Structure formats: structure tokens, C-alpha cells
Amino acid sequence: MHAPPEPSTSDSKSCDPPTFWISELSSTERHTLFATFLGWALDGMDVMVYSFVIPSLIAAWHISTGEAGLLGTAALLISALGGWIAGLLADRFGRARVLQITILWFSFFTFLSGFTNSFWQLLVTRGLQGLGFGGEWAVGSVLIGEVIRSKHRGKAVGTVQGGWAVGWGLAAICNAIVFSVFPPEVAWRYMFWLGILPGLLVFYIRRRVPEPELFTKTRKQVEDLGEKSNFLEIFSPAFIKVTALTALMAVGVQGGYYAITTWLPTFLKTVRGLSVLNSSAYLLVVIVGSFVGYIISAHLCDRLGRRKTLILFAVCSFFTVIAYAYMPISNPVMLILGFPLGFFASGCFSPIGAFFTELFPSRLRGSGQGFSYNFGRGIGALFPTLVGYLSASAALGDAIAIFAALAYFVMILAVALLPETRGKELRIYE
Question: Cα(87)–Cα(94) distance, rounded to whole angstroms?
Fold first, then answer.
């Protein structure tokens, strides 16, 4: 049993100009960055497509809003299981190989969703899509984290996280085009059929993205020593503290995000009576804010450190929610505040991939990251439901603020108890 090593901070004071960091990457690093960024963007596009076709499905199949919500929750909950399974497989069979499988998986089941004709059929395809959706992040973050050198790891992994906002924007653009060309009765099917496009990325990964040298050497050393990697080791006395705290941190990050993004639009529209929420301008401001938040947070986590950046964005996310819930807001102000909403809530995610990569040892990295992040996703997915239940006896704004505050407090507490890892060099065998 090997205890987690203390991180080295030999290059923690690196302050390279962020404008030029990509030019310093090797060919393999750049190809891996491009592939994982595009993979996460297309994954985001496939997932966010559902939010745009909900009205058409409700009208076409006469399903309730509760059933429509269940379709979204099912994919989210099952993605938590998919992320852990993919992480286990990545430790056994390789990061790049399993990444290709997850991309093909979620592409196929998104495409298949376009042929469904009932709530139950779509529930099955959405659930199966979730397995691949959860696995893509778990494996992609490990892959990019192991390939990119420590000096640029935070920027690279955070930049990949920014692909989600790009995918969200692509889904919005596709929605505008498809629904302007086809009637709503069939347009939603074309939206799902576009989900096959990410599968083409697999050809690029097969040609340009090799397995990380760190992974192949670690696997060889494990075999030479006659040892077997056991995923349950992340729950052993040597690693249980890191596993528990990273899982709690993931609960806070994702619980806060889901509570805010799920309920704030309803609160502002029904309680505050703001019409700007129906506009494309508001959606654009939130998406741009999200992308900028991902990128700025990615750079800060290499400059300030993982812990300081995570705590900074958690605190700012909380105060943004308080502003939304309790300050008098007009439509013009609402439009402007869409930027910090996307900026801070999304920026909380950027340091996670690099932080988790550096906290778990090479032989257990996929299992550890896959479990912790996706445990957070599974529990975090319950926060919108809890907000809904609390709003039955309290004001909706109060319910959102309470659960967002709880989520970000849990996140800050977990981060404070974890060691700083900026500048850590990953070892072949730990």
C-alpha cells in the first residue's frame, strides 16, 4: 500500500504569459488538447440539445413537465455510474482507447434518440447516452492531465472544460437553424440525429493521440512487480481521505451549479416577471460568460494555485446567487448579470481535472477521478429536487440561496482540507 506523496512545488511560481502557452506544447500535447477539447464540446452539444427540444416533445407526446424533467435527470444520474465505470476501464485498458469508446457510445445513443416514439423509448436511450456522457469527462480529464506537463496542466485541463460552453453554443446555433428549416414535429428528431457527428472525432484520436507514456510505463511496472491494480484501493486507509474530500468537493461544485442553473430562470421569470429570459441575447451572455469563466479560472489555477482559485470562484458564485435572489433587478440589469452567473458558476469547474489528476496516483487515477467527480454529479443532481421541495414551504428565492450556499460551503470546506498540488510532477508509479 502506498500513501499519496506530498506534491512538489518546484515550478509553482511559474508566471508564463498565458497568450503563448499553447505554442510551448509538444505535438502530442497539442493533439491531445485539441481532441479532448473538441470531445467535451461535442459531448456538451449532445447533452444540451435536449434542453432545446423539450417544448417540442411535450407538445408531440403530451408528456408532463415532470416527465420531461425525469428524462433529464435520468441521463444525469446514470452518467455518474458511467463516469466511474469508464474510469475503472481506463486504468485497465488505456485512456485513449476508452475515450474513443465513450465518444462512440454517447454519439450513437444521441442519434438513436431521434428515432424514438414514446417517453419510455427516449428514457432508455437518454439513460444509455448518459453512460457515455459521464465516461467522456472522466477519461478525457485523466488523459489530458497525464499528457500535459505540470507547468501548463491547469490551463490545459481548464481549457478543455471550456469546451462545454462551446458545445452549448453549438447546440443553440443548431436549434435556431433546424427549427427555422423544419416544422417542430420533426425538427427535434434532426437535432438528435446531429448527435452522430462527434463519432467522427474517433478517427482523429486513433491517428493523433497515443496512450500517455505515464500510463504505459505505470502499467508495465505494475505487471513487472506482479501486482494487480484494485479500484477498491481508493477506499483504503491510505487514500480514503483524498477520495472522500474530492467527492465532497465535487458534490459542492455540481450541486451549486445545478441548483442555480435549474431554478434561477424559473424564479426570475415567475417571481420577478422578467421577460428577457426568453431572449437569445440572455442565453448568449450566459454562454459567453461561461466560456470566459472556464478560461480565466484555468489560467488562475496555474498562477494562484488550485485551492485559492476554487475557493475564490465558490465565494463569488455564492454572492452572485444572493444578488439574483434578493436585489431588485430590471431586465437590462438581468441581461448584464447573466455574464457573472455563467462566469463564476462555470469557472468553479476548471481546476477540478488538474487537481484530481495530481491528488490520485497513476495506477488509480482513472478510478479515483471517475468515482469522485461522478459521485458529486449523482448527489448534485438531487439539489434541484431538494430546492423544489423546500420551495413548497418557503420562497423559491430563499430555497435557491439556501442550497447554493450549502453547496459552496461544502466545496470550500473540502478544498481547504486538501493539499495544494500546483506544480506537482506526476510519477510513473506511486
Answer: 10
Question: Measuring CA to CA, how many Å separate 40 from each of 99, 124, 188, 325, 358?
Answer: 11, 23, 22, 31, 21
Q: What SS3 state is found at 292?
A: helix
Which alpha helices (H) appear in 17-64, and where do they start and end?
A: 27-61
- Residue carrying the nine cell digits 486538501: 418
Report the candidate in 255, 251, 257, 234 with the shortest Cα–Cα distance to residue 376. 251
Q: Give the amino acid at 178.
A: V
Per-residue pLDDT tens, the chain, 430 aa: give them: 444 444 444 444 444 444 479 999 999 999 999 999 998 998 888 888 888 888 888 888 998 877 887 887 788 788 889 998 999 999 989 999 999 999 999 999 999 999 999 999 999 999 999 888 888 888 999 999 999 999 999 999 999 999 999 998 898 899 889 999 999 889 999 999 999 988 899 999 999 999 999 998 888 887 777 666 677 899 999 999 999 999 999 999 999 988 887 776 667 667 767 665 566 777 788 889 999 999 999 999 999 999 999 999 999 998 888 887 787 777 788 778 889 988 999 999 999 999 999 999 998 999 999 999 999 988 988 888 788 788 778 888 888 888 888 999 999 999 999 999 999 999 875 5
CB atoms within 10 A of CB 280: 10
Report the C-alpha gap between 180 and 187 in whole angstroms. Answer: 9
Pull the grid cell for residue 36: 479532448
Q: How far is Cα 136 from Cα 210, in angstroms, rounded to an integer?
A: 16
Domains and CATH numbers, the chain: 24-416 (1.20.1250.20)
| Torsion sign (Cα): 386, 390, 392, 396 | negative
